Amino acid sequence: MVHLGLDIGYGQTKLAWSSNYAQPVAEVHPSGAAPIERCDRMAGGQVGDTALGYGEEVIVGNRRFGSLIDPDRIQNGMQVLHQDYAGTPEYMALYYGALARVGSNVIDHLVTGLPVAQCKDKERARYVKSLLLGRHNVREGFSVSVNQVTIVPQAVGAYYAFQDRRIAAQPQHDTLLVVDFGHFSVDWVLISGRSFRDSSSNSCAQGGSYVIDRMVSLIKAKHGIAVGRERIYGYVREGLKAVHLGTEEVDLHAIGHAAAAEVAPTVVGQIRASLRDQSTDVNRVLLCGGSTPFFEAAMRDAFPKAVYELAPMPVLANAIGFRLFAKKSG
Ligand SMILES: Nc1ncnc2c1ncn2[C@@H]1O[C@H](COP(=O)(O)OP(=O)(O)OP(=O)(O)O)[C@@H](O)[C@H]1O
Ligand SMILES: [Mg+2]
Question: Transmembrane ranges (predicted)?
Answer without folding.
Answer: none
